């Protein structure tokens, strides 16, 4: 009832930018969301990789309560206690030197693009021959603001807003030859999601990432790793690039960093940071006391509960069980991912759509991305028992679909 009236009101009042699913959630506990009728849903998406510690976590609630009672905002005209200690932790975890705080993923990525351009400008002022072009990857997703969307591959996201930021060229995913061919001293930065998220959970290859690093080293261009979805423990490491044993010049964080309180961050090397001087970049809300306090709490819990190891173990278990499922159902053509960033590719977009809707009917939340991929970004606190519930639900649904397809086929033969 409430859902219907909210739907009607939103339809009239909001810009129609989202195709929302018809569910109204009112609370949550652990890995479960609760709807208006009191029914619980196993959440394998965590608000698109945001609610990494799940719902109603006491440490997060305490951080919000305590900090909001003290101070919520002061602006970047003044100091507050939370910024430097959080920046210290992030630099230690990432291997990078400096941090810029902001409020969302696209804003972090926008800062990264601006820094790469400014850094190339700095090099040019020192007499170096370096241009303004970016290389980004096919199937990339870096956000919706005009620079971020320019480095995002899908045409439907860019074309209505043309001209977007110029000087971006797309390289075929994991195609080292194409990367080498398109790279030159014109390039100021190479943009990579170590594991493509919206693009369908595709980890970049070791060779491709290493060649990108080497090409950047050869000219002074910057390697930009977008870890907005893959960063801060999602893949079982603090940063997905740590699986590859290399360091980018810039990385971006957002989704899980403050467990749902809006926050983003761009981290970079000392050398790159020198390109920004006071006044060149900024944000009103970025790195405020509340967001910093909550991000501290997230890192505290991840460390004290050993969540990286947990993500690694439960993620491996989840992918093993999905592999077994794939061996039973021919419609599953691939199982991919790292840690708890997992995708299974089906042989049909229509089937992927049906399965995700039917899982919702069974009160299990996942989503479909890149047409044919079922994506899982569960909270880091997911347990094996939740994986088992998911696998048996999927097994039943795939079996039903195969039987129906079988009957349909037999029916056709009978007529033929
Ligand atoms: C979600 C996402 C973004 C954009 O983040 P917003 O907070 O929605 O602006 C950028 N890059 C990647 C890899 C993402 O997953």
UniProtKB/TrEMBL annotation:
Identify which cofactors the protein needs according to its UniProt entry.
pyridoxal 5'-phosphate
Name the domain of life this protein comes from: Bacteria
Q: Which residues bind pyridoxal 5'-phosphate?
A: 105-106, 141, 226-229, 284
Residues given in the record as N(2)-acetyl-L-ornithine binding sites = 144, 283
Q: What is its EC number?
A: 2.6.1.11
Q: What is its EC class?
A: transferase
Please name the pathway: Amino-acid biosynthesis; L-arginine biosynthesis; N(2)-acetyl-L-ornithine from L-glutamate: step 4/4
Q: Major place of localization?
A: cytoplasm
What does the record give under GO molecular function? Answer: identical protein binding; N2-acetyl-L-ornithine:2-oxoglutarate 5-aminotransferase activity; pyridoxal phosphate binding
What assembly does the database describe for this protein?
Answer: Homodimer.
Q: Which family does it belong to?
A: Belongs to the class-III pyridoxal-phosphate-dependent aminotransferase family. ArgD subfamily.
Additional comments on file? Answer: May also have succinyldiaminopimelate aminotransferase activity, thus carrying out the corresponding step in lysine biosynthesis.
Q: What is this protein called?
A: Acetylornithine aminotransferase
According to its UniProt entry, this protein's organism is Granulicella arctica
């Amino acid at each position: 009832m409430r859902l219907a009236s909210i739907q009607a009101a939103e339809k009239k009042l909001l810009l129609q930018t989202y195709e929302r699913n018809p569910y109204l959630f009112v609370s949550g506990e652990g890995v479960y969301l609760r709807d208006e009728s009191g029914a619980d849903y196993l959440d394998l998406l965590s608000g698109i990789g945001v609610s990494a510690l799940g719902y109603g976590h006491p440490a997060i609630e305490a951080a919000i309560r305590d900090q909001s009672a003290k101070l919520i905002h002061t602006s970047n005209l003044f100091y507050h206690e939370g910024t430097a200690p959080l920046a210290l932790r992030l630099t230690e975890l990432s291997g990078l030197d400096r941090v810029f705080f902001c409020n969302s993923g696209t804003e972090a990525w926008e800062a990264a693009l601006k820094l790469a351009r400014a850094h190339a400008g700095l090099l040019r002022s020192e007499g170096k021959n370096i241009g303004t072009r970016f290389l980004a990857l096919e199937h990339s997703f870096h956000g919706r603001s005009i620079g971020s969307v320019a480095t995002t591959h899908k045409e439907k996201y860019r074309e209505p807003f043309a001209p977007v930021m110029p000087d971006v060229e797309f390289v075929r995913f994991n195609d080292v030859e194409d990367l080498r061919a398109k790279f030159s001293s014109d390039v100021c930065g190479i943009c990579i999601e170590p594991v493509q998220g919206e693009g369908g959970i595709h980890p970049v290859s070791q060779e491709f990432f290493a060649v990108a690093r080497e090409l950047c080293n050869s000219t002074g261009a910057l390697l930009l790793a977008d870890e907005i979805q893959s960063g801060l423990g999602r893949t079982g490491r603090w940063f997905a690039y740590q699986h590859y044993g290399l360091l980018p010049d810039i990385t971006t964080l957002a989704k899980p960093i403050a467990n749902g309180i809006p926050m983003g961050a761009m981290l970079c090397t000392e050398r790159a940071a020198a390109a920004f001087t006071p006044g060149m970049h900024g944000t009103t809300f970025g790195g405020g006391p509340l967001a910093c306090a909550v991000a501290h709490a997230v890192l505290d819990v991840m460390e004290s509960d050993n969540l990286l190891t947990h993500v690694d173990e439960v993620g491996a278990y989840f992918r093993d069980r999905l592999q077994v499922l794939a061996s039973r159902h021919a419609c599953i053509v691939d199982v991919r991912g790292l840690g708890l960033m997992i995708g299974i590719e089906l042989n049909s977009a229509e089937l992927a759509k049906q399965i995700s809707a039917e899982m919702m009917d069974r009160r299990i939340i996942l989503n479909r991305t890149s047409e044919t991929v079922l994506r899982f970004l569960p909270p880091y606190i997911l347990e094996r028992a939740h994986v088992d519930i998911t696998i048996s639900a999927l097994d039943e649904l795939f079996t039903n679909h195969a039987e129906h397809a079988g009957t349909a086929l037999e029916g056709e033969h009978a007529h033929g």
